[in-house]
């Protein structure tokens, strides 16, 4: 007689992401460029990196995909500027997305080609006024320069005299969002904490949401994902160790509260009642994913409103590649999140 055959075992999870060849090529190229420009002695070869870092100029006169952009100096004594992206939208209240680019605190800028494209997409799709912050870079400027710069942009916006003629009349300062990817999401978190602590100093600006795209956190411990996925696409242990050394104060280890955000050295956030609602994105092939999940768990444990969205097939920084379908799914998720936060 016939015995029923046992059900086939479930297929093992794929060991590498399926990516368009174009993405693979760009990812390899950008990794090579980053590795060439970051020197073993802890400095960045800026001249060399500039050759690979394609920049997009602002377009203050002729809209591109319905979005104008222009540069504004926030503080000339430290070359702090923002690039402003304004969509043509006549809704009564237009949110403001303060965006921090990635690059491990050390690389890239507000005018880097991929980030300009992403900011333009956010401006059009949400819609929102997007301000991309040109924060100072490490190792020339270490922690907390980047957090200072981010926070000072919020302060700048709070003064009405600074924004007249700069932002359209329907810009709604009471609906600010902090957003960023990788190191930019780390920055957005720490700026949010600082805002909550000093909120009473602000007259107009309110932070109502935090969009945390694959945040760059870490610690001395090597997590399971870091070990299993090393060296990953874009992110590897060697690279992240280098970046933390360049960013953290001299002599600090990775359990510093800026990196190990949910560890014992973390800033206490349980008493921050107005910590903004947070949306965390994670990719299944991102070696940083365990740190990102811990961040989510820690926010939740501290009573914050937080949502986690994971794309199993995605690598670090995937959303910068518009040819990947998840990158437009992410845009829709952010759009939904923003409109939910706007209703409150
Ligand atoms: C690091 O190396 C570069 C190139 O070899 C050199 O120009 C620079 O002075 C070095 N910097 C430090 C701080 O050692
Ligand atoms: C600002 O940028 C200019 C041009 O890149 C540079 O020459 C100058 O030293 C910078 N100033 C500061 C304070 O960093
Ligand atoms: C770093 O974070 C992990 C949990 O995320 C924690 O177990 C560890 O104690 C932390 N280390 C320090 C020194 O904060
Ligand atoms: C580091 C860098 O390239 N920053 C740029 C940000 O955008 C402003 C305005 O275009 C430029 O002046 C900065 O050089």
Structure description:
The chain has 344 residues and is α/β, with parallel strands linked by helices. The chain has a single domain (53-343), classed as Alpha/Beta hydrolase fold, catalytic domain (Rossmann fold), CATH 3.40.50. The protein contains ten helices and eight strands. The chain has helices spanning 21-37, 46-52, 113-125, 145-158, 160-163, 183-197, 224-229, 237-247, 289-301, 325-343, and strands at 67-75, 80-87, 94-100, 129-133, 171-181, 207-213, 277-283, 306-311. Strands 1-2-4-3-5-6-7-8 form an eight-stranded mixed beta sheet, sandwiched between helices. β1 and β2 form a beta hairpin. α1 (21-37) runs antiparallel to α2. It is globular and about 80 Å long. The termini are far apart. The mean pLDDT is 94. Bound molecules: 2-acetamido-2-deoxy-beta-D-glucopyranose (4 copies). One 2-acetamido-2-deoxy-beta-D-glucopyranose is lined by residues 78-79. One 2-acetamido-2-deoxy-beta-D-glucopyranose (NAG) binds at residues 39, 41, 43.
List keywords for this structure.
344 residues; Rossmann fold; alpha/beta; eight-stranded mixed β-sheet; globular; binds 2-acetamido-2-deoxy-beta-D-glucopyranose
Q: Briefly, what is this?
A:
This protein has 344 residues and is α/β, with parallel strands linked by helices. The chain has helices spanning 21-37, 46-52, 113-125, 145-158, 160-163, 183-197, 224-229, 237-247, 289-301, 325-343, and strands spanning 67-75, 80-87, 94-100, 129-133, 171-181, 207-213, 277-283, 306-311.
């Amino acid at each position: 007689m016939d015995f029923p055959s046992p059900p086939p075992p479930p297929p093992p999870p794929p060991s590498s992401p399926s990516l368009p060849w174009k993405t693979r090529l760009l990812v390899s190229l950008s990794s090579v460029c980053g590795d060439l420009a970051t020197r073993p002695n802890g400095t960045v070869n800026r001249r060399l990196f500039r050759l690979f870092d394609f920049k997009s100029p602002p377009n203050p006169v002729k809209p591109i995909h319905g979005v104008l952009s222009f540069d504004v100096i926030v503080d000339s004594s430290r070359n702090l500027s923002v690039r402003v992206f304004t969509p043509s939208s006549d809704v009564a209240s237009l949110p403001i997305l303060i965006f921090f680019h990635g690059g491990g605190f050390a690389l890239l800028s507000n005018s880097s080609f991929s980030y300009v494209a992403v900011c333009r997409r956010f401006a059009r799709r949400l819609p929102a006024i997007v301000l991309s912050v040109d924060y100072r870079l490490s190792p020339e400027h270490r922690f907390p320069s980047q957090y200072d710069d981010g926070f000072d942009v919020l302060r700048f916006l709070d003064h009405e005299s600074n924004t007249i003629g700069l932002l359209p009349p329907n810009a709604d300062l009471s609906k600010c969002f902090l957003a960023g990817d990788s190191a930019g999401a780390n920055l957005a978190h720490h700026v949010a904490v600082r805002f909550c602590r000093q909120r009473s100093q602000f007259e107009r600006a309110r932070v109502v949401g935090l969009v945390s795209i694959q945040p760059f956190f870490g610690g001395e411990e090597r997590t399971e994902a870091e070990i299993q996925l090393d060296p990953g696409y874009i992110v590897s242990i060697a690279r992240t160790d280098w970046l933390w050394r360049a960013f953290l104060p001299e002599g600090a280890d990775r359990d510093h509260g800026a990196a190990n955000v949910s560890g014992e050295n973390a800033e206490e956030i349980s008493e921050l009642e107005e910590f903004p609602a947070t949306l965390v994105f994670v990719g299944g092939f991102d070696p940083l994913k365990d740190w990102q999940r811990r961040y989510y768990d820690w926010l939740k444990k501290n009573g914050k409103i937080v949502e986690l969205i994971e794309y199993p097939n995605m690598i670090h920084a995937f959303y910068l590649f518009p040819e990947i379908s998840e990158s437009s799914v992410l845009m829709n998720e952010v759009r939904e999140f923003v409109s939910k936060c706007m209703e409150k």
